[in-house]
Amino acid sequence: MEDEMQNLAIISILLGSMVLSAFFCIFVRDLLKSAIGLAVLSALLTVVMFLMNAPLAAVFELSVCAGMITVVFISAISLTRTYTAEEKVVNRKGRIKRFILLPVILIAILAAAIWFIWPLATQMLISNPLGPDLSVQDVLWKNRQLEIIGQIIIILAGVFGIVVLFKDRGQEAQ
Amino acid sequence: MSLMLAIFITALIMISVCGIYGLIATRNLLRIIISLEVLTKAATLMLILSGYIIGRMALAQTFVITLIIIEVVVIVVAAGIVLSVHKRYDSLDSYKISNLKG
């Protein structure tokens, strides 16, 4: 019983932190802080994945999403123009109006869940049927081989997309 | 239903709402991509949760790996497009990009 309570407390804290990180990403005005919030969200998701017996996906999430995508975002932010002082004042006023509804909606969802959904819970943890499960390698390389080809095509599409984008920019500069 | 599942579903809904709200409310192109990324995190968590519930984590992990690859390609290409747009219009405000406005 104590173990169940402990697991539930850890998962609850992690999920609560994820919600706060997501809110921070959307609500904060500075884009750099927003990108860092996104990295924190990915790192928290990684910990949740480790706790739910998904170590391989967790490693992918940590290295690719928390690492590489953050670098891409920070590079893009540093390559684009920041606002001038006048634009900042104008944007701040409009921003508060546009985003003030988000915390209200989140609090309403939390209140509705606490009042209507949580009392229906009859047990603490999710019953995880520990039947014979294949390894990730078996599923990926034997059962879902076509998916690997699809992934290669997607990566090539991305690479060619980037090549075309920067090729056009080079011609414009000339 | 277990209490943990209820907490998971609540958190998933809240993260998804954050992403959708960001997509709707913002005008900055980079922030739109960040909102999309937040929404993808909710989808990833949902896949892992569903795999955990049915006891087939290997299958769920393969789905998550595929999702991460698609996510990375989308984000990198979108960031490239944003940089091109910024070079052309000198702005990231989606309201100022109105050449295709019909």
Q: How does this model look, in words?
A:
Chain A is an all-alpha fold and 174 residues long. Chain A has helices at residues 2-27, 31-51, 55-79, 85-99, 101-117, 136-143, 145-173. Helix content of chain A is 81%, strand content 0%. In chain A, helix 2 runs antiparallel to helix 3. Chain A folds into two domains: 2-131, Four Helix Bundle (Hemerythrin (Met), subunit A) (Up-down Bundle), CATH 1.20.120; 134-174. Chain B has 102 residues and is mainly alpha-helical. Chain B has a single domain, classed as Helix Hairpins. Chain B has three helices and no strands. Chain B has helices at residues 3-25, 29-54, 57-89. In chain B, helix 1 (3-25) runs antiparallel to helix 2 (29-54) and helix 2 (29-54) packs antiparallel against helix 3 (57-89). Chain B is elongated, with a radius of gyration of 17 Å. The N and C termini of chain B lie far apart (50 Å). The model of chain B has no long low-confidence stretch (mean pLDDT 89). The chains are: A mainly alpha (174), B mainly alpha (102). The interface between A and B is large, with 85 and 71 residues.
**Radius of gyration of chain A from CA coordinates:** 22 Å
**Largest interface (C-beta under 8 Å):** A-B, 85 and 71 residues
Query: If you consult CATH, what is the topology of chain B?
Result: Helix Hairpins
Radius of gyration of chain B: 17 Å
From the spread of the alpha carbons, the general shape of chain B counts as: elongated
**What is the highest CATH level, the class of the largest domain in chain A?**
Mainly Alpha
The SSE order of chain A reads: HHHHHHH
- Number of DSSP strands of chain A? 0
* End-to-end Cα distance of chain A: 70 Å
Biggest β-sheet of chain B, characterized?
Answer: none
- Give start-end ranges of low-pLDDT stretches of chain B: none
Task: Give the termini separation of chain B.
Answer: 50 Å
What's the number of structural domains of chain B?
1
Counting DSSP E segments of at least 2 residues, the number of strands of chain B comes to: 0
